[in-house]
Amino acid sequence: MQTDISKQIIQSFAEIAKDKGMDKDLLLTILEDVFRTMIRKKYGSDEAFEVILNADRGEIQILHIREIVPKEELTDEVNEITLEEAQKIDPDYELYDEHAEELSIQDFGRRAVMMARQQLAQRIREIEKDNIFEEYSERIGDVVLGDVYQIRNREILVNHNGVELVMPKSEQIKKDYYHKGDTIRAVVVEVKRYNGNPSVIISRTSPVFLERLFENEIPEVYDGIIELKEIAREPGDRSKVAVLSHDERVDPVGACVGMKGIRIHAIVRELGNENIDVINYTDDKHEFIKRALQPAKVLSVELNEAQDHAKVLVPGDEVSKAIGKGGVNIRLASKLTGCEIDVYREVEEEDDIDLKEFEIDFGPEVIEQLHEIGCDTARQVLELNEEEIVRRTEGKIDEDEAERIIDIIAYEFEDEEI
Fold first, then answer.
1. Is 72 exposed, middle or buried (0-12, 13-18, 19+ CB in 10 A)?
2. Residue range 254-268, pLDDT digits in tens
3. CA torsion angle for 199, 200, 201, 203 (degrees, to 10)?
């Protein structure tokens, strides 16, 4: 019976350890710790005991080793045994020999054995959690491929090699729709703990995901010949990637796009047809801003002293390109260059009206505030909406006043196409 229970305990947890990829020696260490805990609960100390484990044969042996002493010297029955008691077991025993007695697991009681099983299971679960935390902490920034197994309102749960990964709503591309069983590719962005349980966060919206896709599809990026200097994304809509070649023989934009666009198309498809602009990187901030605003043609760039704010002049028919649908082009250009960009239209003097002509309508203070944000003419004001005027004047002109300004100026050009 002793051997049967030993085998059951070792075999059951050896199978669990194997399934979880645990080291056999680690399992034996855990087993020994559990049984020593069981011994201490019963005897108060485990110093007089030896736990021998043989995982291959499925055996657990617990030896109680006591010193043989005269009856009058007996002070500790856990560590000592009298000569009379010892000789009942073996007449050849002498004083101060060691007597080793094998204990049966059943001696500890059914409840103790059950607790040992539970403790073993708990220890294995804890180690599994630690292994998951450590493994995926080292994989932050890596792309993983998993299967969707549960879809919730705020997140999607993905199975990756038996480990649950979480993709929150904020990390999902809006155009993506998932069904249970779908294969999904994403990048590991964070690993944290909730009540001791590891939580692995994956993302398809992170710029790192786009960077990894470039590495996967473009050998020159993977090999380091082409460097991705800056990335700006509005996931599912549009991205801008600034690239630099470390080999003058390699055109970085051409290599990333590929013959007939085959390389970039593979990335675009993975991202739900997200448009990707690949541009040549340069340290020249003026030139970099011009390139970042592509496909718009830029006439001039005026930077402030800190080089974190730019006034950009474009032809009148290029304004919509520079700003982009919903402002996406100018936002991405600002992210890519690390510079706040304001776009102004080039106008002919004879087609415009000096703002001073409106002083009687708005008052000198408002005219001065409009001058401070770079608006010297009526058409320059009409290039802005109410929100933009409020933002640029830092609220000195409120939204109602901004609307009135635009209405009055627009009236002057009502017979013209703006």
1. exposed
2. 999 988 889 999 999
3. -160
Please report how the helices 399-412 and 364-372 are oriented relative to each other, as an axis angle in degrees rounded to 10. 90
Q: What is the 3-state secondary structure (H, E, C) of 63-130?
A: EEEEEEECHHHCCCCCCEEEHHHHHHHCCCCCCCCEEEEEECHHHHCHHHHHHHHHHHHHHHHHHHHH
Sign of CA dihedral 354, 356, 360, 361: positive
Domain containing residue 408: 349-412
Q: pLDDT-derived band of residue 57, with 50, 70 and 90 as boundaries?
A: low
Residue at 388 is within a domain: yes
| pTM for the structure as a whole | 0.66
pLDDT at 14: 65
- CATH number, domain containing residue 408: 1.10.150
Contact predicate 369/340, CB 8 Å: no
Type and span of the H or E element at 264: helix 262-270
User: What is the number of other CB atoms lying within 10 angstroms of the CB of residue 80?
Assistant: 18
Locate tokens 């009681």: which residue? Answer: 109
Residue 284: both structure tokens together:
């020249």
Residue 168 falls inside a structural domain: yes
Residue 150 · residue 142 · CB < 8 Å = no
**Residue 343 included in any domain:** no
pLDDT at site 60: 77
pLDDT at 372 over 70: yes
